[in-house]
Write a structure and sequence with these properties.
Blueprint: E1 4-5, E2 8-12, H1 19-32, E3 36-41, H2 47-60, E4 64-70, H3 73-83, E5 86-90, E6 99-106, H4 114-126, E7 140-142, H5 146-157, E8 164-168, H6 178-184, E9 188-192, H7 209-212, H8 214-222, E10 226-230, E11 237-240, E12 246-247, H9 249-264, E13 268-272, H10 277-285, E14 289-293, H11 298-305, E15 309-312, E16 315-317, H12 327-341, H13 344-351, E17 356-363, H14 369-384, E18 388-392, E19 397-401, E20 406-411, E21 417-424, H15 427-453
Parallel strand pairs: 3-4, 3-5, 4-7, 8-9, 8-10, 13-14, 13-15
Antiparallel strand pairs: 1-2, 2-6, 5-6, 10-11, 11-12, 15-16, 17-21, 18-19, 19-20, 20-21
Helix pairs in contact: 1-2, 1-4, 5-12, 9-10, 14-15
Pfam family, one: PGM_PMM_IV
Family: Belongs to the phosphohexose mutase family.
GO biological process, one term: carbohydrate metabolic process
């Protein structure tokens, strides 16, 4: 069983993630790397406990440790590049408060590549850890990050604004950065759910539409220029325009992809397997190329294809600033774009074509996910038949159809779920395909659950 999923190690406390594992991960990192590690955590109730165990492992294997404590994941990646040879974030990102996890970074701020995760797992499972002698154990020191990180983002964005912004921090660690960053830019900020609380009392930490739909009404009532929502560790960002309309995740990716390709006069954009055709359309029109990679691997894609920009739903990478997902750079640049070309609704209407996407999850035990996806893909292939133009198998199964519709069925890398994503050029076409795919997956889950109990 692999420890690493699509975004580090993540799972329910005690069932998958526990202090014993954090200790081993720390010792494995110190066996795999040398030098200085920067460590941080999100606001989950179990994060201090896990961070303490992780630091013990790092020290035991001979690494020096800089403890940045409570900061967002993008700030940890930045601090790792500035101060460390490795970085570790204790977080479960957008998962429920019952969960936690561990995300590992290289000294340049990139998340560990797939091959590095495999090598780290081999060390963990083998137990062949480096053990520092008593006189080789290095120091543990505190590291203040937030002020310098905000300054770095401000320097990169290089823009002053007078926009009004509604910010929803999800009671996550983004609340320690976003309101201050936006105010430093000159924005008027209205904040909600902006105190850190690992119970996430304000809303569910994942910023998908159904969890943040109330922001649309608040936008209209407050008369702001946009609303921004983050997740628990603040790598994700969701956006509403000045009319209170939710801006689809693919639209946000397409908007930035278009701008970067136009700025570079071409280039490659990396995006994930679960993103839509509007990205391809605007990038190709601007003279660029789109390459899709497995979910959770934008950094791998940037390295392999020398991409000028990368994005997956809610998570954008700006390589000119750093090779990590950074929602704070995204929000800063978004304000700049609105000031230069806005309002946001106009920018979207004039630049991004409309496609209709629908997403849903089907609960599925982890041990059945692979078989459910395989069986579902076979049935979908039979039903779709000659409509299929291309099949991508880099993360689950994606069927690209001849009318530019597509159907994706893939196992979640972080939760016991199957993801079903469908897009079509019309709502009717989307809904027809979705009902077919969702029904097939649900039936396969129930069938295999019955078989496994027999």
């Amino acid at each position: 069983m692999r420890l690493f999923g699509t975004a580090g190690i993540r799972g329910m406390l005690w069932k998958k993630v526990a202090p014993e594992l954090a200790l081993k991960v720390g010792m494995a990192i110190g066996t795999y790397k040398t030098g200085r590690a920067v460590v941080a955590r999100d606001g989950r109730t179990s994060s201090v406990m896990l961070k303490s165990a992780l630091i013990s492992g790092l020290l035991a294997s001979g690494m020096e440790v800089l403890d940045a404590d409570l900061i967002p994941t993008p700030a940890l990646a930045w601090a790792t590049r500035e101060h460390g040879d490795a970085g570790v974030m204790i977080t479960a990102s957008h998962n429920p408060p019952t969960d936690n996890g561990i995300k590992v970074f290289n000294g340049d701020g990139t998340e560990f590549y797939v091959e590095q995760e495999r090598e780290l797992e081999e060390i963990i499972f083998s137990g062949n850890f480096r053990k520092a002698e008593w006189n080789e154990i290095k120091s543990l020191r505190s590291l203040d990050v937030i002020t310098d990180y905000i300054g770095a983002v401000l320097d990169f964005v290089n823009h002053e604004t007078s926009l009004k912004v509604l910010y929803d921090g999800a009671n996550g660690v983004g609340s320690l950065v976003a309101p201050y960053l936006l105010r430093e830019m000159g924005a008027t900020v209205f904040s909600i759910n902006a105190h850190v609380d690992g119970h996430f009392p304000g809303r569910k930490p994942e910023p998908r539409y159904e969890n943040i739909a109330y922001l649309g009404k608040l936008v209209r009532e407050l008369g702001v220029d946009l609303a921004i929502a983050q997740d628990g560790d603040a790598d994700r960002i969701a956006v509403f325009d000045e009319n209170g309309n939710y801006i689809d995740e693919d639209t946000v990716i397409a908007l930035f992809a278009k701008l970067y390709v136009e700025e570079h006069g071409g280039g490659t954009v990396v995006t994930s397997i679960n993103t839509g055709s509007r990205i391809d359309e605007v990038v190709e029109k601007a003279g660029g190329k789109v390459v899709r990679v497995p979910l959770g691997q934008p950094h791998d894609g940037i390295k392999r294809y020398k991409a000028i920009f990368a994005g997956e739903p809610w998570k954008l990478v700006h390589p000119k600033f750093g090779p990590w997902i950074d929602s704070f750079v995204t929000m800063g640049l978004l304000l700049k774009i609105i000031d230069e070309e806005g309002p946001l609704s106009k920018i979207v209407a004039e630049n991004i074509p409309t496609y209709y996407i629908r997403k849903a999850n089907v609960a599925c035990p982890d041990e059945l996910k692979e078989k459910v996806v395989e069986n579902s893909a076979k049935k979908l292939k039979e039903k779709l038949g000659e409509e299929i133009g291309e099949v991508l198998t880099i993360s689950g199964y994606r069927f690209n159809l001849r009318d530019r519709s597509w159907v994706l069925v893939r196992p979640s890398g972080t939760e016991p779920k199957i993801r079903v994503v469908v897009e079509g050029p019309t709502e009717k076409r989307r809904d027809e395909l979705f009902e077919m795919a969702y029904t097939i997956v649900k039936e396969e889950v129930e069938k295999l659950k019955r078989t496994s109990r027999a």
